[in-house]
Structure formats: C-alpha cells, structure tokens
From TrEMBL:
Belongs to the ABC transporter superfamily. GO terms for biological process: carbohydrate transport. Residues 4-234 form the ABC transporter domain. The lineage of its organism: Bacteria, Pseudomonadati, Pseudomonadota, Alphaproteobacteria, Hyphomicrobiales. This is ABC transporter ATP-binding protein. One of its GO terms (molecular function) is ATP binding.
C-alpha cells in the first residue's frame, strides 16, 4: 500500500490543455473518486498516474518514490478498465494467474495467490469457468482478482462498471466497496456518474475543464458545494440556483417544501413557488415550476416525499420555504 501524490500536474496535447495544474493527495488505503463531465481530464490524469501518459509539467509520487518518468511496469500499480480485457480462451483460474505466469512464478505460489485473490472477490467456486460463462459482475471480479495477485501499491479503475446494466451496476458497486474495505488498497476511481461517486468514494475530486473544482467527502461536496458548477453537477435533479445581483442562492429540491411542513417558529426563508407540472417517482414527487414573488422569476424543482399530503394547484403561487440552514450562497461569477 502507498500514498499517492499529484504535484502541480498539467498535460497539454498540442494546443489543448487536458489537465491544468492539478495537485492532490490520495492517502494510504483511501478510495478517491475522480468525477466530472466528459472531457474534463479525469482519464488523462489516471493515465499519467499509470505511466501511460507523461505529464507536461509536475510530478507523480507513489509511496516515497517520484514516479513521473517510471515505466508503467515499474510503478507497482494495477489498472482495471471498462472492458476488463479477460482472455476468452482461458479459465477464470488462468486469467487470474496470468500476471504471475508471465513473471515465471512457480506453480505452488501461483496456486496460493490465485486462491487467495479468488477468495477475496468471492470467485472460489467459479475458477473453472470461462469468461463467456459468467455475468458482467463476475467478469469484473475476475479482473479485480487478476490485478490483486500482483500486490499493487495503488489500484486505478477507469469506469469499470459502465458496461453493466443498472441493476448489476448497483450490486457490483456494493461489491467493489466491500472489497476495497477488506483489502484497503489505495484506489483512484474515474467516473462521470455522481451517484457512483457518492456511493464509492471516501473523498471525491470534482473536475471541470482540466481543473479541480472541489475535493471533499461525498457529504461535504453535496451539502457544501464550493461553487455553482459543483452545486449543479452533484445531485439529480440539481440544486436550484437563483441569481440576485452579485449573489446566487442555492437550495436542493428536497430542502424546498410547502411552508406548512416546517414547525412553527423555525428559522425558514420563504420562497413563492408556482408549480407547472408534477412527476410521480414512487417514493417522491418532483414538482417543476418557477420561484417568483420575492425572488427573480427562475425555474426550480421541489422534491416532496409521497408520504407528505400535498396537492399543488397548478399555475398558482404557493408559499414554499427552505430551512435557512439549507440555503447556500455563491458569489455570482
Ligand atoms: P470521458 O469521461 O469522456 O472519458 P475524460 O474526463 O476522461 O472524459 P479525457 O479523456 O481525460 O477526459 O480528455 C480530456 C481532454 O483531452 C478532452 O478534451 C480530450 O479530447 C483531450 N485529449 C485526450 N487525449 C488526447 C490526445 N491523445 N490528444 C489530444 N487530445 C486529447
């Protein structure tokens, strides 16, 4: 295991800056998620950590070694990609054993390591299967086990769940997290899916256009976004934003409720809301409309638990409110 440090790293491709002056530290045993929209530079950053791309500026430190110019094979990292890259003609056992066979390890050691890694990811009973006889999640675990047998210092994962359907993705995410808790390898995980990032990360790095906008725990990032980009990127539907001159007010849809839902005397900020449309989601309803009255007319969304008795009169102004502690203020750029 090792600590990973990214020191003022930039990557410039011809005339395009893909990563711009990024500094961050991944603690020993930490699961760090790089999150951001397509093209924000997260894969490029991961590739530089792996040694597949060379930074234009800056350094990558793994453990106590400056690794910036080391070959990928000399970094003791393991990388798991989207497609798992398993060998279809080999059994699960031989797929997992592959990195050890390449190194010429003797067969007793190979067997010991394969059994250990397969046990960790719950594949002990499937070792004789071929990849085509397994589910997407089992293939993913095979790829994880294969990376594990090399005892990597750092695990790099580039959207490893993106090929799975929604249900499997959820269980694979859970398994991945349990696995990481058990093995405790320092991990960097790339995704553009904020739900995945929140569920997996000890901390999340939110990136945009090659730069870091915020680093924090899922809760810090969700509750206290550093700016309006992070505020709208995290959360679905996103945080409501209402601009008032040089201040932008932000409040999450679930913190925006009919005024009657707040106990008398609580510290609330009243906001008029005109509902245009209701979407029923089962546990919740989404109310789409506009805030108005005391604030500039702006589109907004409220998320109300279905258990709350409330029938909006479409098109008419209603008294809504946000607990003042849930109101965020951003400087308008
Ligand atoms: P995605 O989620 O779509 O994979 P990403 O955040 O991982 O996106 P990167 O793949 O890191 O983004 O790319 C960052 C930017 O750098 C993009 O604008 C991309 O077009 C550009 N880029 C990446 N690789 C190269 C390259 N080899 N040459 C030129 N530009 C590149």
């Amino acid at each position: 295991m090792a600590r990973l440090e990214i020191r003022q790293v930039s990557k410039i491709f011809a005339d395009h800056t893909a990563v711009s002056d990024v500094s961050l530290t991944v603690n020993d045993g930490e699961f760090l998620v790089l999150l951001g929209p397509s093209g924000c530079g997260k894969s490029t950053l991961l590739r530089m950590i792996a040694g597949l791309d060379l930074p234009t500026y800056g350094d990558i430190v793994i453990g106590d070694r400056v690794a910036t110019r080391l070959q990928p094979k000399d970094r003791n990292i393991a990388m798991v990609f989207q497609n798992y890259a398993l060998y279809p003609h080999l059994t699960v056992y031989e797929n997992i054993a592959f990195p050890l066979r390449v190194r010429g390890a003797d067969s007793r050691l190979v067997d010991e390591k394969v059994q250990w890694a397969a046990g960790l990811v719950g594949l002990s009973k499937l070792l004789k299967r071929k990849p085509r006889q397994m589910s997407g999640g089992e293939r993913q675990r095979t790829a994880l086990a294969r990376s594990l047998v090399r005892d990597p210092d750092v695990f790099l994962l580039d959207e490893p769940l993106s090929n799975l359907d929604a249900k499997l993705r959820h269980s694979a995410r859970e398994e991945l997290r349990q696995f990481q808790d058990r093995v405790g390898v320092t991990s960097v995980y790339v995704t553009h899916d904020q739900v995945e990032a929140m569920g997996l990360g000890d901390r999340i790095v939110v990136m945009q256009a090659g730069t870091v906008r915020q680093i924090g725990t899922p809760e810090e990032i969700y509750q206290h976004p550093a700016d309006t980009f992070v505020a709208t990127f995290m959360g679905s539907p996103p945080m409501n934003l209402v601009s008032q001159g040089d201040v932008t007010l932000g409040f999450r849809p679930e913190s925006f409720l009919p005024e009657g839902n707040y106990p008398a005397g609580s510290d609330i900020t009243r906001i008029s809301f005109r509902v245009h449309r209701v979407e029923y989601l089962g546990g919740d309803r989404l109310l789409y409309g506009h805030v108005s009255g005391n604030l500039p007319e702006t589109p907004a969304i409220a998320r109300i638990p279905s258990s709350v008795a409330y029938s909006p009169v479409l098109g008419s102004e209603t008294a809504f409110a946000v607990a003042s502690g849930d109101l965020r203020r951003f400087e308008t750029a």
